[in-house]
Amino acid sequence: MNNLSSATEFYLLGFPGSQELHHILFAIFFFSYSVTLVGNTVIIVIVCVDKRLQSPMYFFLGHLSASEILITTIIVPMMLWGLLLPGMQTISLAACATQLFLYLAVATTEFALLGAMAVDRYVAVCNPLRYNVIMNSRTCIWVVIVSWTFGFLSEIWPVYATFQFTFCKSNLLDHFFCDRRQLFKLSCDDTLFTEFVLFLMAIVIIVGSLAPTVISYTYIICTILRMPTASGQRKAFSTCASHFTVVVIMYGSCLFIHVKPKLTQAAEYNKIVSLLISVLTPFLNPFIFTLRNDKVKEALWDLMKCCNQLFKG
Q1: DSSP 8-state assignment for residue 262
Q2: 47: part of which helix (H) or strand (E)?
């Protein structure tokens, strides 16, 4: 490749190690991906069909599960294909741009949904008498529409700006998907200004969705501490624990990998943190939201009994 031409396709280096190690990783990630698809699909189904789960919290949970399915499907199948086949995996420039856009758009939507879920929990705990008035169905539908629309519209320019550069240093991407940080490393152009602008945009998106979460939980904790009985405190806390756990995992991972203007992290570190977002969080989501939630467990149990009756019949 000469110095004046830009890459039209990239080679994904994926994970280092022997073919035997790749087969082990394939088995682990295939299992995780299967559980992610089944678990999050079950959550969507029971939220849609069970009348006990017809509330704003579970409405948002259904959309969060849909986003988890999307974000892991954008990344994991290509990663599995690369682990299964010997040699490096190729991806065209157009496919690379599409994957990066979808990944960032769905991730941004997740942040917006997590912020909305935090506000929902604040209203439920701190203003329960007006909960049904404030979090009515019309409000919830508009919140979801705005979250998905914002997620996809906000990432159009960042991805467009990324692929305006000339990638002539190499066409080897040291990652298992089209990671923007690795793309910038391949550019022969000066990317500093664009990186800084994208860094500021990442700050606005993450802090903008984190702010209502922090404020909501500050009020929630103060309200819970003022409750007269321990049983009331436990009940109030249990309604927020699952969401809070997901918030810690998601924002913790993203603060490590996304909000950083300098590309100083080792490639292997980038891959590990990317796995937290694209594999671990979607995998844990069904367990986090079912193990501590009696309504979801009851709905799941009823669904299993219904399926069992259908198979017997």
Answers
A1: S
A2: helix 19-49
